[in-house]
Every structure is written in C-alpha cells, then in structure tokens.
User: Fold these one by one.
Assistant:
Number 1:
Amino acid sequence: MLVVAVAAWLSAACTGSACPNPCRECTWQPVQGQNPSLAEWRTLFVDLAERRVTPDLPAINPVEVGPGRTRREAPFPCHLLPAIAMAESAIAQFCDNEITVISFDCGFGVMQVTSGAAGYPGIEARADINVAAGADILATKWNSDSSFGGRFGDSDPVILESWYFATWAYNGFVYRNNPNNPDFPANRPPFHSPGSLSRGSYPYQEIVWGYLGYPLTKGGEPFQTGVEVSYPTNVPDRGGLFSVDLALPEPSHPDPCSEDCPPSGCPPADRRTLLLDDADAGFTVTGAETGAETSTVTTHAEGGFRDGFRSAPPSRPATVVARWVGTAPATGVFDFAGFVPLDPASNEGVVVTVGARGEAARFVLDQGVSGGVFAPLGTVKLQEGARVVVIVDNDADDQELSRAIGLDAFRLTWRGDGAVAAGGACTTSVECAGAAVCDGGVCAAGCEVAGCAGAAVCDVDTGVCAPVTGEGEGEGEGEGEGEGEGEGEGDAAPRVFARSVDEGCSGAGDAGEGAALVVAAAALGCRRRQRR
Amino acid sequence: MWCALLLALTTAAPTTAAPPWPAHAVLVGTASIDDTTTTLQVLTVQDGVARRAEAGVVAHQRGVVPVGAVVDDHRVVLSVQDGSARDARVVVHDAGGAQRTLLHEAAPGQAPLVAVVDGRAVAFVVRELDPTPAGSTFDVVRVELDDPAAEREVVASRRALWVTPVRGAVEPLRLLVKDDAGSGVDGAAHIDVVDAGGLQPSLALPRVPVRSPVAVGGRLWLEVDDALAARGRAALRVFAPTKPHEQGAVVVRGLAGLSPVARGDTLAVGTGRKDGTVLVGRVEDVDERRRPARGLLERRTGRAGVARPQGVTAAGDVVVWLDRGVALPGELWWVPAPPSPPTLLVAPPPRTAVVVYGVVAAPPAAPATKEAR
C-alpha cells in the first residue's frame, strides 16, 4: 500500500530538478495551476523588464544607475530576465502535472525564488508575481555592488554586460561561480551553443549568458532571439565578498525592449545583418602566379562558417588578395565581426580592410584562438543599397609562416545610428548620423551631394572622393590590391558619381538609378573637390 | 520516513555479477543539455572501428552530466546531483547497471568532486558554501569501495575558496587548494598533501589562475594562464616540490585548455593549437630545460580543432576531446600509439555533453589502476 502511494506520488511529480519534495518544509505549499502560453510569457517578461507593474505585483526595487549610482526605476535589459528563467526552471511556473515548481531547496516557480520567499506571497501560484519577485531580487543584487563584485563601466542597466555580477549574485556570490574556478574548463564554448559542455562546466552567470546567445526552445521555437553578449576577462580570481570597478567588456550590448530608432526608423529584422561568406558569389580570391608557396590558396571543406573556408600563408608583400562584396541592407552603424575558422587558420594579425560608408576602416583579426565563432572587430558605417567591400590580403601583421590566414566570412549587424548631426564634430564617419560622412572633422553629406574637387571622383558607395589614377576601373580602392587581379576585380572598383561642386552635372536626379551612377572617371567633365 | 523510503528506492540493490568492461574501454557519461537523463556509455575500438554500448542511466538532472572516475573493470564512481545540488550523492555504478550509494550529503550548491585512490573513493565535499573571504568548509572524505559496511572517514577538513584533486597522484593524496585566507590577493593557491595531520601545504603556486594539476614523475604539472600573452592562452608548467618557490618551467604554451593527464609515467597534454594534435611522452624523457621542451611527441587526430586529452593508458593510447569551436559540436577520439590510426569514438549531436570518466586498465599486463581522475 505504501509502495503504491509512493509510486503514485512519483508519477505525479514532474521530471527534472525542480519539483515538490515531500522531505522538506517550504514557506509556501505547491498549488495547482497552468503555465502562461508562449505569447503570454513573452509579454510578461517585456512588461516586467520595462517595469510595467500592476498594483497586485511585488514592487521592483529601483537600481543605482550611472557613475554616481543614482536610484532610478530603470528598465532591465530585454532578454535578461527570460534567460535567467531558462537557467532556473526552463521557463516553467508549473510542472507538467500542473503543480508549482518547487525545488529541493525551496526555490519557487519560474524564477526559483528562494531568498525572502515569505515576502512575496503568491510566488507559488502566479507566474507574474514570481517574475516580479525575481526582478526585485536581481535589482537588490545589483544595488549590493559593494559586496557582490562591483560595477562594470558606468553602471548602465540597459547594457547586458553591466549585469554580470548581479546575475552571479542571483545564484550566490560564492567562489564556485567565479569564472576562474579551476574546475571549469578553459576556453569553454558558450553554454547552450552547439559545442556546449555539461552545465556543471560553467559558473551560473555563464549559463545565463549562454541562454542569451543560444536561447531555449519552447513550443518548437526559440523563446526569444539570441543576442550577442560579451564575457568579462578580468574578473578577480578571488573569493569572498569583493567590489571592483571594471571596464565593460568589448563590445558591450545595450538591450532595450523599446528601441531608440533614428528618424528614418529602425530597419526590419531581415535587414539588420549582412553576411559575407567565401561561399557567396560576391567572394573572389586571387594570387600572384609566381608559383611561390606563399601564393598558394588552400580550400578546406569544413571548419569555417557554413563549413568551408580558404587559407593562405602570410607573405610580405602580399601575394594573395581576397575580396568580399555585398550590399548594405540598411543605413546606420553596424557591428563588424570576422569568423575565426579552425586549423590551419591561426594567424594572430590578419589585416581586414572595410570599404563602407565614409573612410576605409582597418581592423586586425586574431585567428589564433579556439575558433568556430565570429570575433568582434569594431563598428563600420553602411548606407542602404551601397556596396560593402571587405579585403584581406596575406600581408598580415603576423608573418609567422606556420600560422596561415583564414579567408572565410564576415558579419555586419545593425546596432543603431550615429549620434552626431550634420555640421557636428567627428573623428570617424561612424559617429555621424544617417548617411553623413566625417569630412575634415565635421559630419557632412557625402560627395554624391557635395561633389569632389580637383582630380578626384566621387565613390558613391563610400561617399568620399577618390583620386583619379587614370588606370580605369581596376584601380582605386586604395588598399594596394591593384595588381594582378583577374576576373571579378571590376566588381570592387569604386562606383563613381558624376557631380561637380559647381555645375551639378547630372548626378542628383540619378541617385536612384544604380546603373547610371557608374561613370568612368575620364568621362567626368566636372570640377571636383578632393576630400582625401 | 519518506526520505528513508525514497533513498531506498533510489539505491538499487546489487544484481548478479555482470561481465566486466573490456580492457581499454572508455567510459563516458552523455546527456543532451536540454534533457535530464545521463547515460553511461562504454566505448571500445576493435580493428579500427568504434563500438558503443549503453550501461544504464546514471543520473537525472537537466543538462548536468555527473563527474566521476573509473575504479576498475566493473565499477565507476560518480558524483550525482539528483534533484538538487543540495542533495548530492556519491555512487558506485557497476557494469551490471546497479548503483550503490557511498555518500549522501547535504552539500549546498555543489556536488562532491570525486577521485579514486588505491581502490578507495575520495570525495571532496563542500559542507558549507560561504561567501566570506575565508571560503567554504571542505571535507575530504574517504570511502571504502569494497566494504559497504565501513564508515566514511573524514581525513581532512579545511576552510578554503576551493579544493580540487590533483590527478595522477597515488599516495600521498594531493589537493589543489585555492585559499586567499582573507588577504584579498588574487589567485592565491597551493598544493596540499594529505597526511595523518590533515592537509599540509607543500607547494605555493603563481598568483594566476591555475587548473588541471597532475602529479607524475615526482613533479607537478599544471596549466596556468599565460600572463605574457592575451587572455585565452595558457602554459603547461612543471614544478619540482623540492623547489617550492620556483615559478615552474614552461613545457608547452598555447591556447588555454592544455588539459594534462597521466597514467603511470606517461603524460599527455594538448599542443595549444587548432590542428587536432596532442603531445604524448614518458615523463622521464621530458626535458623542460630545453627551448622548446623536448621529450613529448606529437600525435594527430587528423581533424581540425583544439585537442584536449581526457585519459591515457599505460601504453600511451590517448582519449582526446576535440573542441571544434562554438558552432560545431566536439568529438571524442581514440588516438593510439603509432602506427595505429586514430579512431572517432563519438560524434555527439549539438548540445550533447560528454564527460569522460576514464579508461579501463588492461588487467594482466598493467598493475591495478592507480590513476585518480
């Protein structure tokens, strides 16, 4: 009889780590209820991230914001509370048998609220109360920076990375969760990524970070969009309560639920990312036909983005030039990242030049890391419809012959708009709003509007003037890649725009007609103002 | 009564003796990190072909694969967090699928770490997680595997930030102890030796993050974060206990995760490169005074990725986890001594965790395994 009763209880309990345990007395008893629908969950998390709290929910503590740590009812990052819920309960308030999720240590519901559970009546019965309680506890951890780790940057709560210590403290600010704990494998891939290790191989906050990038699937679809998040690399290898001021890990990621869109609006989701891959039609690679070992380009079937990639040994001067050409999906500032392939791509100084809106940008990609991931490089400015050209040659900063240069893929992800209006001071075009470029330290319209002076032509993609070399379309990007190009090189030559400062030529009215914009430099009879 | 009854239900009675696992079988626990079930897998290589047999379910916790260590040809010791980390058990799981509970602890927030020394299970139990600088209280508990009636023995108890076993050690038992004793100094760590008086400090370590300690050949080998290079790179350093104040000689330098393992006098370590290569050699052949160090020979999986040794046999065959980056699941390889070719043991689906418990020793040719992992 007793065995039957136990069996009945076991069958009633749901599987997993967080179910009622008759061995423990908890503050609240489990109740019967149903989980919100997927849509209701999502709405609930957004409402509470933005602190839209109804009177019947627990109040959520203000958080201390900014360098002066002023208390404000600032919103939470949009994706953080759901990621914590994924780590805590796989987003479940009730088990499959419709009984409240209560863990062995009396963690209640979706946020597994333990601390001060008695102060949150209803956490066992209502998901909204439970999430509000979890948010309140998280805010309290944030405010306890003098004990729980300290601060990142200027304590801006909209930035995901600012919450690293508070998330750690949500689970317990103990050395077990210190990322330097010797029992955690070095160079572990992010939790819940395809290469993820066992959950026990990660400190708690990295489990949450993993779910931010690689969210749980619920109802057959990802609960939320995966978002980029950076991991700090300078957390003290120290136990106990401590407080340090650390710079935000780069890049940091603001994550508001309500986007602050530029006047032109935020681009739709399908126009926020541009991927440039060596498998795309816009990719070309050329090598000098010298027969030298350094001109060899090797194709690898796997280990790169979407499997394959190419590699070349370093050489000075360059003997191999790879070029990715794509079209900007939107106007604004884009995060630029390069994929790090597997072996033999291990060069620690791959030079990457981006021809986008404004001046060319130069980055250095370290491929001497584990790989299989996009490594952030910086930001670039794009203009919708304009051509984007990425160039890598094998004249790397790292000339160690055994460390080959991987030629694989780049990713550009829309992040917003520049903050400086036309006429404002700037150092790079990334700072300028809209399609403006930084010209002589001032944000100004591109040369397709302003024209070029002297012996220069306007590159309509970059918006800056380029000198006329007299060699035709095969020249002119300014990256030194003009030699020995084969078929396809013409694709990367600047698309020039015929408009004079004084005469107006024929340009402005043609702006929407792409083909008409390609005009041979020699045909330009306009007086041009040279911008660089 | 409920608790006692549940304990009885979860502690399966021993079954009739099952055939032992074959020599050189690799024992691993695998689980989807979105699932709750960890199964024990027995992986073998015959004529260059990998074979896999399931040896039962060993744990139920979402995404968490228990850690553990192979005891002999029919037993593996596991640290299991069924239900909650506050309710951790150390169990011995035999080839017939039966489990016997050796230790059932209220261990807040952390399952015990386990090692097997001289056929006895040694568990490192966190008795109290404490955020104060003095750290938590760790009990070092020894349990007789062959005597179910024997009382557990607490051989040492110490406050520390963290305690983890030194692998490869037989006797005396060595532990890596993270212990800043309230000084607030980053990275303070040392190697302690367990003797009749408890834990005795024996070797101070550099004040940088350290991991994967292995004691073999009278020396200590461990991975340290490479302060000279960018984050994410590390060096394998070797320390002589007789020179406790030295910083250790660099044997290998490269990507972090060099993961040294040892059995007998054989050492295997990663190269710190992405070319799927490990280094293997006899410890007495290693000359760390040369630049680069000599005595370790490269052995290739033939696949791109960062190769991290997980186990090694006395004959020098190495079990290697091939880390293929974020976008691709890793792979487990058997990399034998030349001229035998490497064999892919397991290519798990994405988001499937694999934890290696060790390699079953060959009974006649090798002495009883004393590897502690």
Number 2:
Amino acid sequence: MKRLIIVGIFSLIIFLANAQVSGYLGKRFLFELDFAAMPDLGNYIANDTSNQLINTQFGFSGQFVRAKKAALGVHYRFQQSTHDLRLHWNNSFINNAFEDLKLYNYKLESAPSNMAITNMHHIGFGFLSYDDGFVAPAGNYTEAEFGVIAFSTYFWNETDGTIWSDGNEGKGIAPYFRVNRMRNHIMLDALVLSFGWSATFNPLGIYSAYHLSRTSKPSFYADTNILYHHGLERTMETGYFMFKIGLGLLK
Amino acid sequence: MNKLLIIVLLLIANTINLNAQRYKPLESKGEIPKDFLQLSSEKYKQDAASLDSVATRKRRKDKDDFYLESNFIIDGLLKSGQVLFNDPVSEYINLIADTLLKDNPELRKELRFYTVKSPYVNAFATNQGMVFVNMGLVAQVENEAQLAYILCHEMVHYKERHAINSYVESMEISRAARRFQISYNDALLARSNYSKDLEIESDYQGLQTYLKSNYDPTTVEDAFFVLEFSHLPFDEVVYKREFLENQYMKLPENYYLEEVSQIESLDEYKDEYSTHPNCQERRDKLVPLLRTAETKGKSKYLVGEERFKAIQKIARNEMSRYYLNERQYGAALYNSFLLLEQDKNDLHAAKINLKALNYLVKYKNRESTYGVLRSYYYIQGESQQLYHVLSNISAEELNTLALSKAWEFHTKYPKNKVIKKVVNELAYELALYHNNDLGKYRKLVKETEKEPEPDTIVVEEKKLSKYDKIKKKIGREDYENDSTNVLYAFSDHLDDSAFVNNFSRMAKIAARDGDSSDYDALSWRDEFKRAQKQETKGLSLGIDKILMLYPRYYKVDNASGSQLRFQKTEDAQINFIDQIKTISDAAGLEVELLSPVNLGANETNKFNDYAALSEWVRERYDHSITLPNKTLPSTAEFTDSLIDVYGTRYLAVTRVISIKNNDNSKYIKACVCCLGGITAPLAVYYLVKPDVETIIEFNLLDLKTGEIIMEEYSSKSMKDYDYLVKSKLYDIFNQVHRSK
C-alpha cells in the first residue's frame, strides 16, 4: 500500500510538472464561479408546470491545463428545484396522493400551498478539448463531463413552513454525462469570462420519469420511493440543457 | 626609388583589391530622419489641421481621405527598409538639390530626398515634401545634369501640390461620372488628361528652375530618352559566348539568336489613358525653351563628374544585387556581364554572376523557372541573346558550365568563402540531379596543345556554314550531341586534385541525401502527421534568444472593399509590439525586436540591420515554393555578421491579420432559419454574428542555413481579441524556448 501511495504521488508530480504545456502566459489553473440557467421547458413538455420560471445552477469549477489543447476539469454545482403541487390536480399521481392524504388526516386546505423541493449537488470531472487554433485555457472548448448528482427530495408546506412529507426524504445518487460547449474569454490576462451551454444525459432520471408516468397509484403518499423517483425525475428535467456563464481567475 | 614606387603601387593595388573584396550593400547613415520615426497618425493629424474650412464638405472629405491614405502608405514604404537616407547616393542627390535650390532656401528646407532600393527607373514626390529617387534611375542617367532635371520636375510636383490635387480631381470626376452617367472610359480619359496636364506643367516649370541653375540645358532632351528606354539594361553590349561557355564545352548554335530583336521605345503606345504623356510629346513641348536657353558657362556636372561616376558605379552594383534579391536572374546575369566587361576583376560582379547562375541552376534542376527567368520574347536589345541561351540551355548544361565557371573564379579568389560555397552547391546539384561520378567526364585536348594524349579526342573548332546551321536546327547535323559535349566541360579541372576531391565530397553528400533530406520531399501523409503533431504537442526547440523582425498587425475591412483600416492598424501595431515584450518575458524567451517603429534617432545601425534582414526574408520566402528548405538567400553573406551582433541565429517573422468580411449569405441563412419555425432563433444569431476572421502567422528561420524551422498558421472566425493573439504567441514562444 505504501509503495502504491509513493507511485501514485510520483505519477501525480510527473503529471503536474509537465514543462511542455503552455497555458495562458504560463498560467495553467483556472478557478471559476459558475451560473447556469434555462427556462423550465421540461415541465411544460411533461405537461407539468412549475412556479419556477427558470431552472438555475450555481457552483464553482476548476480547470487544469495539461496539454496545448487539453485540460482537466472538476465541477461542483448546486441546484434547487421547487415544484408547486397546486397546479397538479389533473395529474393522476398527485390526485391519488391527495386521496391518500385524506386517509392520513392531513389538512386538505394546506395542500395547494405545498411544494416538492429537490436539492441537487452535481459533482463531476471532465476532459476538455480546445478547438484547433486555440491554446488552453483560452478560447472555445468542448468538455466531456462525468459525475453524479446527489439529491434529496421532500415536500414542503409553503404556508406554515413545515416539512410535509412526514419526515420522509427521497435521497439518491444519479450518474450523469454532460457535454459542455464553452468559450473562455480572458481579460486583463487574469480574469476569465466564460459562456456557453451544457447538455446533460441522465439515464436514471429518464427511467424515473418513465416509471412515475406509469405509476397509477403510489402505496402511500410521500413514500421514500416515490420521493426518490420524483427527485430523480427532477434531476433530469431541470438540467438537461442549460446556458452557462462563469467568472474566473487564472493562476 | 624604384623599390619605393613598386611598394606604393603594390599598396594601391592591394587597397583597390581590398575595396573590391569589401563590397557592402549601401546602408543609411547618420541620424534617422523624423520622416521615418514619426507615427503616421501624427503626420495625418498635422496635415488634417491644415484643411481649408471654407472648402465644400465633399472637397474637405476628399482631402482628409488623401492625407490619411498618403501618410500611411508612404510610411509603409519608409518603414519597409527599402528606403535609404544619408547614404552616398542620397547625399549626392541632396547636393544636387542644394545646387538647384541655392536661391530658394525655403523650398530646399521643405524638401527631403531619399533613395529607394529599386532597379526600376523612377522618381516621385509626395505631398509631404519627400522626393524618392530609385536606384535604377541613378544607374541609368547619363550625367548629373539629367538627374538634376528630373529632380526639378519632382520639385514642381511637390510645390504645386500635384498629388493632392490629382486625388481630389479624380474623386470629383468619379462623382460626376456617377451623377451624369459618364462612361467609365470617358471618366478615365478625363483623369488621364488632368494627370498629363500636371506632368507637362512639372516638365515646363521644372525646366525653368533648371535653367536658372548652371546645369547644361543641352542634355535635358536626352533625359527623356533615359525614361523612354528605361526598360533596357544600363548599357547595350553584345553578349559574348564565353560568358557562359568554356573552351571545351560549346553550346549548340541553335541556342543563339541570329539577331536580337529591335529596340522599341516604351512610348510606342497610345498615351490616351495613361497618367504620363508620351516622352516624345514631353520632349517636343520643351524644345522651344531649350533651343533658346543659354548654354555658355553651363556644365553637365556641378557636384562633380568623378563623384557622379563613383555614385553611378555604386548604383549599378546595387542594381545587380536588387535583381538577385528579386530573383530576376536574367537581368542579374546581364548586369554582371556588363560590369565584368567594364572590369574583369570586379569581384562583386563575379559573385553576382555566380550567385545568379547558382540559383538559376537550382530552379532549372527542379524544372521551375517560371517567375525567375523572363521569356526572351519580351526582352529587347543585346540582353535578349543571354535570355535566349538561358531559356534553351538544359539544366545539365547550365549546371556543368556554372560549376566550371565557379571553379575558375574559385581558383582566382581561393579565399573567398562565397565563391567556395557556390562551388560546393553547384557540385552538389550536379551530383544530385545529373552525374555523381566524375569518372564519366573526359578530358578534351585541343589541337593547339603540344602533347596530346593518344586516347583523347580532338575536336576542331570549325565555323559553321549557313547550311550547317540549318541542319543543326532541324536536327540533321553530325554535331556532337549535348551529353557528349557536357562530358568535356571539366577538361581543365580534371587534373586539379582539389576540384576532383571537392566534387567527390559533394557527390558523397548528394548520394547520402538524395532529395529526401529536403523538408519538401515529405509525402503528404508524413506532412499531415507532422502538422498534426505540431498542432497537438508542438515543438521543443530549446532556443534562448530570437530576433524578431518588425511584427506586423493589419486590420482589414473587406466589407468596404478590401481596405486597410489605417488608424486601427497603427494602434494595433503599437499594442502588438508592447504585447510581445510581455509575452516573451512570461515565456522566458529573450526576444530582440528589430522594428522601425520603436527606434530612437541614433539607432541607425539597427535600422540598417532591419533593412538587410527584410531583404533576406523577402528573398527567402520567394525561394520557398521551389527550392529546398535549407536555402540561403543571395544576401546571406551580408547578414552573417548579424548572428554575432545579436547573439542569435534565429530570426522570427510574425504577423496578425484581422479581417472584417461582409457575408451576404447571412441573410439567406436567416431566411432559411425563419422558414424552419423552431430554428427561427438561429436567424437572429446569423444576423447579429459579425463575419470576422483573425489570422496569426509565425515563422522561425535559421540565418545560418536559411531553414524555416517553425511555421505556425492559425485562422479563426472570430475577432482579434487580445487573449487570442497572446495565447497563441505565448504558446509559440514556449515551443521555441522549451527543451525536450
């Protein structure tokens, strides 16, 4: 094990100490605050609506330039999705859920004010390839990002500010593959303004959306399983395509 | 006493010889004039401040445009390294101007005279008071008085503001043509008539200034002959066959013209649409004034005849060099022929001769003489004979004769490195392309030799009859065929062990190299792989210091007719030079800039170095299409010393071009997107997206070998953001500096 650690550290040193790499005026690290947004089209497509007009993601990322046109990226993004249930009366699943609520003596009048909240933490790493004619980290690049979204979903009563889903939370991890197509615009040789778009493929999210649409009636409302699938579905439909902007610092 | 005389004579002879050996291209001297240092934008602002506020808006606009364009374009010439100042020729021209304007000191103060390194016969004056005289004109005039008259003519152009008036008039004619639907030809005719009037005015008024001086008026008429026959070399001397041939290898008779074509005047055309009137017409208009002019006490030389001859000799030497630099090998050879006819011991002419032959051999061997040898059909006068021979001679014949000639010169000047280098290159070429075994060559002994070897062939030099010539022309003669003839070319050198050893050495190198050592010989697949590797990984050259030649930045607006955006170009240029310092510091590469933009008035040496290297680079690029990568330009012998001066043998040439295009297809694309319904937002994208392109070029050359070590070219469809240029250049500097 000790030997393995030594070899690992040695490899990392060699990897980082690559003198062949240019960077931008010798700067090979980029730290960036990111913001991504997209109108919540997903809900409309799914015949759903939301009180969230746009889905947003905040986070930070880093890039390490490892070759003339290649870099490695790490990403963290946080996203919260609030999903208003008032407008879902026509949705058979929600209707059934409220039927269940009656059985459990929940106050029906509070139902219209309830929200489904999903918190998502995107953690990923990526391989960046800069376009011909550019030298990393300046200019246009395409990134293949791999990662996971750790999410938790619960229902929340907007009126009295209480957790509505009986203390249950749907927690889970969804793997994703994302393509980021961005341009790094460097100013004053140190600041980086980046903009572009990202498209995410989230297989479990797609599965859950399919699964939920076929669920005629859940065993009981706010079941962890339902919350899990609901959260998974949200990880997919609130982030499959985003416009991104970032502000960063070169080091 | 006799001994002393001999010593003095020997010393003089030695000095002459040293002078010949020490030929150096003409260089500028003294302080760099303000014309060269001041920014174009400053000059433009000064000129624009003088705009007449009473004039109409359009006229003011025309003048403003003229000031902008003329200042930037003339500065382009001043900063090209093609213009000389305070050199012997410019000084001489200035002395003539002093003589002419001794009674008009104000005008004299306003005028600055410079020499342009060009072999073409021309002179021109600018609105700013600069008079440029081409070296070709100095080489061709018959005497100082003719040059003085031409200067008088140019002075009038300046005094009467002909340049700006002509521009404004031309603009007005264009507007009138559009307004009144005047045909293109009529508008051209109107412009041409106006321009011709200005020329006649300059001739006439110039003559009046001239006649006030003590220059001889009888020679003015002949000055027009100089212009009329300026397309011919500086002398008409019958071409001698021994210039190329040697006594053992004669070229076939059909390589020679029976007679050269007649000389035609450049004026034998209709000058209807020309900017300049016919020389004959110009001459005729001055004749009445010239006939009545006072000739008593007038002279053709006021500065001095000896000085004129010395200056003209310099100009003619320079012209040969310019021809070589422009790869006009026919002209360079005939020029060197004329110089050698005047002085058989002219080492400079001999070197020009050998260099021209060497390059021509290389081009002939690669079957690509287009652009380096004009067709004899277009040449007039005695030089046509040489062009005809050069057109007909085979590559092997030329290579063989050139090597033989080079060896003769080498024997005469054994210590001359340039000649030795030519010998080696010609031997290498001969071995590589034709014959790598000297054993194939035979010795030919002429009848006149006393002890002929029994197995040698004896050839009689007989005079060919008319019918022999016809037979040869139609290929029915018993004349020895070319290859046999070629085999006797080295008869004189085969006993010379130095020649044999040298040839064998070069033949070995040629055999080892083949042509595969050439960078150009890479297959397209190898080339692709190499380019791909360079694009992804780059090079690691391990170089600590480079010289960078005038980094250029152009802002071009194709949307308004492929125009250079002068002001923006200058701003970007200055910014770019500043950036290079930052980038090179970050990359740890020492970059010494040789640029006319940021020089101090006392940095004339640097200006000269910049000019010399500019010539080097221009010629090197011209060779790159055909010749191998390791090809040195003809001026290499004069730039070799710069390697020590600057402590590096690597020369970088870089430029950035930012182009704004006018993409009319964007409207079609937008329409198509709108029709697509869901793709409608893309229509906005196409309409808003600017059609721009940024090209970044960088080449690194080895001054020692001529090799282009690194070639980088990048074109992006985006604006020339600072970061784009900086990141690219930093990467390049990094590749140059880093070691494996």
